[in-house]
Amino acid sequence: MILTTTNNIENFKIVDYLGIVTGTAYDSSYSANGSKLSFKDMFSMSKYYEKYSLALEGIKEKAFQNLKDNAIKLGANAVVGIQLDVEPLANSSTLLVSITGTAVKVK
């Protein structure tokens, strides 16, 4: 599956536009690989950012997998015009990742 933020793919021709697809995922921003950040480590900026970055990467991967699964259901072999949005949920340590694009068939 080809995924791109551009509206076309070099050396490929879009032969069919199948519709808008999304992929979303959310999780605690203090959790990475099943391990929570301890209360003490929350005050260590380097440990906080390390865990935060690992958690964000995992959430993004889940969202991209959901996007690909939804595109495949439409019969697509590519998604163009991808936009990614990361939002913290109010009053919690949870991040929401939302990815949107257009499912297409290319040759």
Mind explaining what this structure looks like?
With 107 residues, this protein is of the alpha+beta class. The chain is built from one helix and six strands, in the order E-E-E-E-H-E-E. The longest helix is centred in the middle third of the chain and has 29 residues.
What is this entry, summarized?
The chain is of the alpha+beta class.
Q: Ends: how far apart?
A: 12 Å
Give the percentage of residues in beta strands: 35-45%
Residue stretches low in confidence (pLDDT < 50, at least 5 long) are none
Shape from CA axes?
elongated
How many H/I helical runs?
A: 1
Main pleated-sheet profile? 4 strands, mixed
Radius of gyration: 17 Å
> What structural class do helix, strand and pairing data support?
alpha+beta
Overall helicity: 25-40%
Mean of residue pLDDT values: 87
Structure summary, number of beta strands: 6
In order across it, which strands form the biggest sheet?
Answer: 1-5-6-2
